From TrEMBL:
Residues 4-224 form the ABC transporter domain. Keywords: ATP-binding, Nucleotide-binding, Transport. SMART domains: AAA. InterPro entries: AAA+_ATPase (IPR003593), ABC_transporter-like_ATP-bd (IPR003439), ABC_transporter-like_CS (IPR017871), ABC_transpr_CbiO/EcfA_su (IPR015856), ECF_ABC_transporter_ATP-bd (IPR050095), P-loop_NTPase (IPR027417). GO terms for molecular function: ATP binding. Belongs to the ABC transporter superfamily. The keyword ATP-binding applies. It comes from the Bacteria. The keyword ATP-binding applies. This is ABC transporter ATP-binding protein.
C-alpha cells in the first residue's frame, strides 16, 4: 500500500478556513472519509493527488509532495469524481477508455487489451461502441472508474461516487469499488459502504473529529450531528 501523509494541512477559500490543521498517515487498503456537508471532505480528497494545493502544510504520497509534483503523483493516484459526466470525454465507451491511455506510450494492441479487460470487468462489453451519454447513471460511473483503473494507479480516491445514483446503481458501483485490488479512499455519505472498510475518518469543520473502525466511527459521526 502507498503511504499518504498529511502534515499540518490548512486551506482557506477566501476568508473561509476549510481545512484547519489535518495530520494523518494513511496506509490502509480501504479508508472512508465521512462528515457533514461543507466539512471539508472533498477539499481534503483533492489534495491527495494535487488537484488542490493547500495553503500550508504538505500532503505526500510515498514521500512525494502532491502539490509540487502533481503529475508524478497523479500517475500513482487516480481520482473518481461524483459526476461521471465531468469525466467522460469521448463519444463512445471504448474510445473513452482508450483516451485515458493516450499519453501512456502503450502500443495499440496493449491499449485494446486493457480496454477490453475493463469493458468485461464492468460488464460494459455490450456497450463498447455505444455513445457514453446513453449509459445509465450506474454504468456511467463504472465507466468513469474504469477510465481511472485502466491507467493502473496504485491508489484510487473517489469523491462521493454513489451520490447521484439510485440504490441499485449505488450497490453496483460500491461492489465495483470493493472488488478492486488497489488502495481505495472514498468520501461518502453512504455509511453502509463502509462496513468492510479498515478505517473511517470523520471530518468536522475542517478537522479530524474521529479516526477509527467503521463500527466506532459511524456512531461517533451520529453523535456529532445530533
Ligand atoms: N473552489 C471553491 N471556492 C470557494 N469555496 C469552496 C470551493 N470549494 C469548496 N468550497 C467551500 O469549502 C467548504 C468545504 O467544501 P467541501 O466540498 O470540501 O466540503 P464537503 O465536506 O466535501 O461537503 P459535501 O459533503 O457537501 O460535498 C464549503 O463551504 C464549500 O462551499
Amino acid at each position: 500500500m502507498s503511504e499518504i501523509v498529511f502534515d499540518a494541512v490548512r486551506h482557506a477559500f477566501g476568508e473561509r478556513e476549510v481545512l484547519r490543521g489535518i495530520d494523518l498517515r494513511i496506509t490502509e487498503r480501504r479508508v472512508g472519509i465521512i462528515g457533514s456537508n461543507g466539512s471539508g471532505k472533498s477539499t481534503l480528497a483533492r489534495t491527495i493527488n494535487g488537484l488542490l494545493a493547500p495553503n500550508s502544510g504538505t500532503v505526500t504520497v510515498d514521500g512525494v509532495d502532491a502539490a509540487k509534483k502533481g503529475a508524478q503523483v497523479r500517475k500513482k493516484v487516480g481520482f473518481v469524481f461524483t459526476d461521471p459526466d465531468t469525466q467522460i470525454v469521448m463519444p463512445t465507451v471504448a474510445e473513452d477508455l482508450a483516451f485515458s491511455l493516450r499519453r501512456s506510450g502503450l502500443s495499440k494492441q496493449d491499449v485494446a487489451e486493457r480496454v477490453q479487460d475493463i469493458l468485461v470487468r464492468f460488464r460494459l462489453d455490450g456497450h463498447a461502441e455505444h455513445p457514453a451519454h446513453l449509459l445509465s447513471g450506474g454504468q456511467k460511473q463504472l465507466l468513469a472508474i474504469g477510465a481511472v483503473l485502466i491507467r493502473r494507479p496504485e491508489v484510487v480516491v473517489a469523491d462521493e461516487p454513489t451520490t447521484l445514483l439510485d440504490l441499485r446503481n449505488a450497490r453496483v458501483v460500491a461492489d465495483a469499488l470493493d472488488s478492486i485490488d488497489q488502495q481505495v479512499i472514498v468520501v461518502t455519505h453512504q455509511l453502509a459502504l463502509l462496513d468492510s472498510f479498515e478505517r473511517v475518518i470523520v471530518i468536522d469543520d475542517g478537522l479530524v473529529a474521529f479516526d477509527g473502525s467503521p463500527a466506532d466511527a459511524v456512531p461517533a459521526y451520529r453523535e456529532l450531528v445530533m
